[in-house]
Write a structure and sequence with these properties.
alpha+beta, Aminopeptidase, 13-stranded mixed β-sheet
């Protein structure tokens, strides 16, 4: 829903005290288009190499995508990028949040460069966002189960687990995939342009029963947004015929049970937690 909010104000002051020592002086400002390449570099470095094929924010062209977002904020209402700087101007970390309801925000990323970790940078970013958006009472996020430092921070800020998701991947054996004659790809021209520019895309395969949405989080991976698509090999074959570089299919499901698959054996490559808190303001004020 379109909601217009001003950029958060500049914020100067101490970070949140951490377990490693006293807080450092941190200045938080809205990100600008010139930050896009740095944001992409820090984001990519924060993910394990084994997961980068499954993440749009780890693709080589994500800096071009974020540059558009930052240069045209009115076209992305409710979306906010903040950058934390040291007093000398060195960039220490960034956060991206999106207003999902009038009083609820989703934290997509909070990334801190390795040399600045433990200095209260993440807390300073969150505090600056909440100062600039006083109506926000609840913050939600997704975090990988094996990301111990992030989970420790979120525990201290009062986040509680709402649900668990598993990321399943199957290798696509092309010899066993035959496309049906009555399907077509919708949005192909746009998808190819996005892939060439940003490294990720979405499109749809249209069947007699309607369109089926698919994603390309990277060059070699096809994402099914509906687990039932794994039981339609002819549909996936139509997508693979158009994109011969694809060699894996990805699906994310609630819980830990693998969905039925007719395209290959599924293996779990990642698990994530959906967490939220309505205590974040109090916890930031009294860590």
């Amino acid at each position: 829903m379109p909601i217009s909010h001003p950029a958060p104000p500049l914020h100067a002051g101490p970070g949140v005290p951490s377990r490693r020592g006293a807080p450092a002086a941190v200045r938080v400002r809205p990100a600008v288009a010139a930050d896009a390449a740095w944001l992409a570099e820090v984001s990519r470095a924060s993910f394990a190499p084994r997961l980068r094929d499954y993440l749009t924010s780890a693709q080589p062209g994500v800096d071009r995508f974020w540059q558009v977002v930052l240069a045209h904020p009115a076209s992305f209402p409710g979306r906010c990028f903040l950058v934390a700087e040291a007093t000398g101007g060195d960039r220490l970390g960034f956060a991206e949040l999106t207003l999902t309801e009038h009083d609820r925000a989703h934290l997509s990323y909070v990334c801190v460069v390795e040399a600045a970790r433990g200095r209260g940078v993440a807390g300073a970013l969150l505090r600056a966002y909440l100062d600039g958006n006083p109506e926000v009472r609840t913050v939600q996020l997704d975090v990988f189960t094996d990301n111990a430092p992030a989970r420790a921070l979120y525990d201290r800020l009062g986040f509680a687990v709402e649900s668990t998701s598993t990321w399943w991947v199957a290798d696509l054996a092309r010899d066993g995939l035959a496309p049906a004659a009555d399907v077509r790809l919708d949005g192909l021209h746009t998808a190819r342009a996005w892939l060439d520019t940003y490294g990720f895309a979405e499109f749809a395969v249209v069947t007699e029963s309607g369109p089926v949405r698919l994603g390309r989080p990277s060059a070699r991976v096809l994402r099914c947004f509906d687990p039932a698509t794994l039981r339609q090999p002819a549909l996936l074959a139509a997508a693979c015929q158009e994109f011969p570089e694809v060699d894996r299919v990805l699906v994310m499901t609630p819980g830990g049970d693998a969905p039925p698959s007719a395209v290959g054996e599924l293996r779990a490559v990642n698990r994530s937690l959906r967490m939220s808190t309505a205590e974040i303001r109090a916890r930031l004020e009294h860590p």
